Amino acid sequence: MEKWLVVLGIWAMCAACAVLFIRGATAGSSKRVASKAGARAASHAPSGDTRAALND
């Protein structure tokens, strides 16, 4: 019985780590899209520096 609790605990820890890893990997892509859109909108703001507009 004690052996099965240890095995179950290890599997539960692996499953929890996998879930957290997958959530972290997928959350980063949506943040990058949002930050890229914000940076693109900021580069089109009128600023007097035309080099920022030419980089797109």
Would you kindly provide a written description of the structure presented here, covering whatever features stand out?
With 56 residues, this protein is an all-alpha fold. The chain is 82% helix and 0% strand. It contains two helices and no strands. This is Lipoprotein.
Label this structure with key terms.
single chain, 56 residues, mainly alpha, 2 helices
Category from helices, strands and their pairing: mainly alpha
Please state the overall shape, judged from the principal axes of the Cα atoms.
Answer: rod-shaped
- Give the beta-strand count: 0
**Main β-sheet, in a few words?**
none
How much of the residues is beta strand, in percent? Answer: under 5%
Q: Helical proportion?
A: over 70%
Task: Briefly say what this structure is.
82% of the residues lie in helices and 0% in strands. This is Lipoprotein.
SSE map:
Elements lengths: L1 H42 L7 H4 L2
